[in-house]
Input
Amino acid sequence: MVKAFVLLIVALFILSACGSHPPIEGASEMPEVSPVPNSQIPITHSPSPSPTPEASVMPNSEPPIPSSPPPTPEISERPAWEDVISFVCHYGTFSETIGLFDVAILEPDRMTAPQVAWLGERGTWTIGYVTVGEDHNLRRMDGGGPGGWASFYIDDGNGEPRQNANWQSYYVDAGHPMWQQIVIDRVHTVLRMGFDGVFLDTIDTAELIPETREGMADLIRKLRLTFPDAKIIANRGFFMMEDFAPYISGIMFESFTGGYNFARQEYYTWRGNDLEWTRQRANDINRIRQTHYFPVFALDYADPNDLETIQALYDRAWEFDFLPAVSVIQLNRVFWRDIQPQTRRGIHSGLPRWQG
Output
C-alpha cells in the first residue's frame, strides 16, 4: 500500500544519532518539553565529520496550518523494501498513527510485542533501536576497564570511562568480544519481539575514536551474518560506508539539512560549507547505491510550526532520492501532515532506477 507522507519529532547529536540519539528517559507522546542537555554541538547524537555548523537559526513562525486528522491505518500488504516511500522515527509510546508509515524506527522498550504485530498487519516495517558505539549504562562485568568498569569502555585519560556529555552515555570499543555479545543479545531480544530489523545508532563513535573503526565494521558484519534476514539500518557512519555497505539494508542521514543546537536550544538549517558537506556525503551515498542499493532515510529537525522550512527539508531530501521525515529533537511525538515534496524524485541522485 502506498502511504501518505509524514513529519515527526526527534533526536540527538550526530555521533550516535536517530538518529538519532539514545532514547530520552521518560519520553512519550506529549507536548514538547524543554530541550535536553545543553551542548556546544549543534547536531544530533554523534560527532559529525563536518566543520562547526554555520547554524542559521530559524525565526519563530506563524501557527501551523490546520491539517485534516490522520486517517485510520488499515490492514494491508506492506510494500517491498525497495519501494518504501515514507518513514517515522519515534522514541515515545505507541500511537496508531505510526501505522500510516511504510517504515517505523522505534524504541523497543516502549513498545509491546502485540503493538509491533499490529503495525506489521498495517503494512509497516518495524525497526528497533540498538546502540552499537555507546552504552547507556555503566557495567562492571569483568572489571578490567577504566575505573574498575567493564574492559570495553574507552578511558577518558583520567582512569574513568569516557562519556558523551550530551546524552550521559559511555563510549565503547565496538570490537571488544564482550561488547559484541551484548549487542548480539540485544538484537536477538528485539527481533523476538517481532521487529523486522534494527537501527544501529552511535556508529560515529568509531570516527571520534579511530582505533575502534575496524571493530565497528566487524560488529556490523557479524550482525549481518548472525541475522541474515533482518533489516539493518545504519545511522550515518559516512566515514566508513565502504566498510559496511554490503551488510546493511538502509542508512539514515540524520540532520541532512536541518538540525538542533543544544547550547542555544534552537533549530537551524545548514548553510555554506556545511550544506555543501552534506551534498558531498549524499553523492557519496548515491555512488555506493549504484552497487549496493538501499533506501536512505533523511531525518531532519525543525520547529513543527515552521511549515515553510519543513517543506524545504522534504524537497531537498527527495532531490537526492532520499526519504524525508522532519521531527522535533525529543522524537517523542508523531506528526501527520499532508506535506508532499515539490521536487522530482532523485533528480540529483544519478540512480538508474529513478532516471527518465
User: Anything to note?
Assistant: Residues 154 and 302 are 33 Å apart (CA to CA). The helical segments are 113-121, 177-192, 205-208, 213-226, 241-244, 272-289, 307-319. The first strand starts at residue 7 and ends at 8.
